[in-house]
Design brief:
The protein is mostly helical. It has 15 helices and three strands. The relative contact order is 0.08.
């Protein structure tokens, strides 16, 4: 971003509602539902980039300060209008008081909407640029907007089809989508992919012309579908419900490899680890070196009769990836469940 010194804390909420938000101090929350509703990693990244822009531009802080400034004058105006209406001898005095109250409230809401719209436009512009600098397709932002708009239009009142919470604070319009597409086209045409070209040369004339920053490699690494299905299995209310969800998906069409992995995760959580080993082994043969599958096989084996083989697999993973958090935590959880002194 334009402010790389800004620290962020991104955290995941175990909530199937489609939402994300930023708050003071660089804290950015992403609901599991938003990830499950996304088609690929780039769409999720577009939302995070947008929320980062809200932080770097201090939109939340400015909104709080603006509300504080507006509250006293609007309150005085409300009280004054009500006092005038109440002092009238007219039979419609009570109606006048109500009109004054509603008008003042409407003014406060409209000012907040106007302020939010300007912030959203700025966050769109900066968020798409950050997305592009990170190595993603800048068109991912427009595609995410289109997905949200489609979900909103399909609203039929049910829990699954209701308007996403994200749209309540980030309303999507066709003009906003077209602006996102136009901005993406402009970025592609400029070719200013790297952080070095955009910060070092154009954004900050005080830096020397040969100043170089190596942009971290971004873009979709192909792991998103596996992470997405793991998340689906882990955020169901119960493991049994997760299994039923995958069975329903299977009735609608053949499960993909990532979905078969998600079903295996649900089975492991339901205490059916041995039943998941065969399917995970077949998937690993198709996707050698896939860490999600290797961990799944080790975890499933640890819940079966061959703990020694599972421990050997875990030990090999720890030796190969000593600083990998997923490996360490999965192995630790298995040992903790075992509860023996040796474990």
């Amino acid at each position: 971003s334009d402010k790389p010194e800004q620290r962020f804390t991104v955290f995941l909420l175990k909530d199937r509602d489609i939402n994300a938000f930023a708050t003071l101090g660089g804290y950015v929350a992403v609901n599991a539902g938003l990830i499950l509703a996304s088609e690929d990693e780039g769409e999720v990244a577009s939302v995070i980039g947008h929320e980062f822009a809200h932080v770097t531009q201090q939109h939340v802080l400015r909104s709080v300060e603006q509300a504080r400034k507006d509250s006293l004058p609007i309150l005085l105006a409300m009280l004054g209008a009500i006092a005038v209406a109440q002092g009238s001898n007219s039979d419609s005095a009570s109606n006048g008081a109500m009109v004054a109250l509603v008008s003042a409230q409407g003014l406060a809401i409209q000012r907040q909407i106007n302020y939010t719209r300007s912030g959203e436009a700025e966050a769109d512009r900066l968020g798409i640029r950050t997305l592009y600098r990170a190595g993603f397709d800048p068109g991912d932002a427009a595609r995410m907007f289109q997905r949200m708009l489609a979900l909103s239009r399909s609203n039929q009142g049910g829990e699954r089809e209701r308007t996403p919470d994200y749209l309540l604070t980030h309303p999507v319009t066709t003009s906003r989508i077209s602006e996102a597409i136009q901005r993406a086209d402009q970025l592609r045409a400029s070719g200013a992919r790297s952080v070095a070209s955009t910060i070092g040369r154009s954004d900050n004339p005080l830096l020397p012309g040969n100043f170089s920053i190596q942009a971290s490699g971004g873009g979709d690494d192909g792991l998103f579908p596996w992470a997405q299905e793991r998340l689906r299995a882990l955020t169901a209310d119960t493991p049994a419900q997760a299994i039923r969800e995958y069975e329903q998906m299977a009735r609608a069409g053949k499960l993909g490899d990532a979905q078969r992995y998600g079903l295996s995760v649900a089975r492991i959580r339901a205490g059916k680890g041995p039943a998941a080993v065969d399917d995970l082994s077949q998937l690993l043969a198709k996707h050698p070196g896939n860490l999600w599958l290797e961990l799944g096989i080790a975890q499933a084996g640890a819940h079966g009769n061959d703990r020694a083989a599972a421990d050997a697999r875990f030990d090999a993973l720890v030796a190969r990836l000593p600083n990998n958090l997923a490996v360490a935590r999965t192995y630790a959880s298995v040992l903790n469940e075992r509860g023996t002194p040796a474990a």
